[in-house]
Design a protein that fits this description.
The structure is a single chain. This protein has 207 residues and is an alpha+beta fold. The protein is built from six helices and eight strands, in the order αββαββααββαββα. Strands 1, 2, 3, 4, 5, 6, 7 and 8 form an eight-stranded antiparallel β-sheet that branches. β7 and β8 (181-191) form a beta hairpin.
Length: 207
């Protein structure tokens, strides 16, 4: 049955998105392991549909300090991916290159942020490339934009940058293991409705 809102996605649609997530996370593991030169593993991500206005509670609460990195998706599929990570994520990434104590956003330098952005770029691009390959589409990925602050601040800044945010969105919750250390990260995928329908059409899933 046709849908006009992302909230109408059924189990079949979510299963298709999980397949994209599985392939994307597998590609991310390979790329991150090569970049960091240490073992990296990612559990099968949990994928759900949420209201963007309620995203703060999924990300740990509106007052939690986080780093948000947003990539624009354009061309055959239009939307945005927002990757949200904790300072602990930044600390683990940075310490694969050089020793440094990172306990809060105040401890993060431009060099530290650059390393985190490169990691985030690999992870989000892996999901976007999985979308493109499975749907035989071309997706141009715009350079990441970083936002540092509370969850509430990051979500508001991302919303002001991308008009499509404010709808219901696809929430990807993943656990990453870097040399046996578990770190959590979250991604929010927003696709315009026309792009979402094109995605399922190309995947052979009725919409």
């Amino acid at each position: 049955m046709a849908f006009n809102n992302i909230s109408e996605l059924n189990t079949l649609h979510l299963d298709a998105l999980r397949e994209v997530g599985n392939i994307g996370s597998g590609n991310a593991v390979t790329s991150l392991s090569a970049m960091l030169n240490i073992p990296v593993d990612i559990e099968i991500p949990n994928i759900s549909v949420i209201n963007y206005e309620n995203a703060a509670q999924y990300l740990g609460g509106k007052d939690l300090e986080v780093i948000g990195l947003a990539l624009g998706l354009e061309s055959d599929l239009d939307g945005v991916m927002l990757h949200v990570v904790l300072p602990e994520f930044a600390s683990r990434i940075v310490n694969t290159f050089y020793p440094k104590e990172i306990h809060s956003l105040a401890d993060i330098s431009d060099m530290d942020l650059s390393a985190v952005k490169e990691t985030s770029n690999i992870t989000t691009a892996s999901y976007a490339n999985a979308l493109a390959r499975l749907t035989d589409t071309f997706i141009n990925i715009t350079p990441p934009i970083d936002y540092l602050g509370t969850v509430e601040d990051v979500l508001q800044k991302a919303a002001s940058r991308f008009d499509s945010i404010g709808q219901q969105v696809i929430y990807i919750d993943e656990s990453m293991f870097i040399a046996d250390t578990e770190i959590k990260s979250s991604m929010i995928l927003i696709l315009q409705m026309a792009s979402l329908k094109k995605l399922f059409e190309r995947l052979g899933v009725p919409y």
